[in-house]
Amino acid sequence: MTDVIATNQTILVVGGGISGMTAALEAAECGKNVVLIEKNPTLGGRTALLYRYFPKLCHPTCGLEINLRRIKSNSRLRVLTLAEVTAIAGSRGDYTATVKLTPRYVNENCTACGACADAVTTLVDNPGNYNLNQMKAAYLPHAMAYPQRYVLDPSIIGTPEADLAKAACKYNAIELDMQEETIQLKAGAVIWATGWKPYDAAKIQPYGYDRFANVVTSVEFERLSDPHGPTAGKILRPSDGKEARNVAFIQCAGSRDENHLRHCSRICCMASLKQTSYVRESFGAGGKSTIYYIDIRAIDRFEDFYAKVLADPGVKFVKSKVAKIEEDQKTGDVMLHGVDTEGYHRYENRHDLAVLAIGMEPSVNAAEIPGEIIADSSGFIESSAVNSGLFGAGCATNALDVNRAVQSATAAALRAIQVVNKVARAEA
Ligand SMILES: Cc1cc2nc3c(=O)[nH]c(=O)nc-3n(C[C@H](O)[C@H](O)[C@H](O)COP(=O)(O)OP(=O)(O)OC[C@H]3O[C@@H](n4cnc5c(N)ncnc54)[C@H](O)[C@@H]3O)c2cc1C
Question: What does the pLDDT read at residue 2?
Answer without folding.
Answer: 63
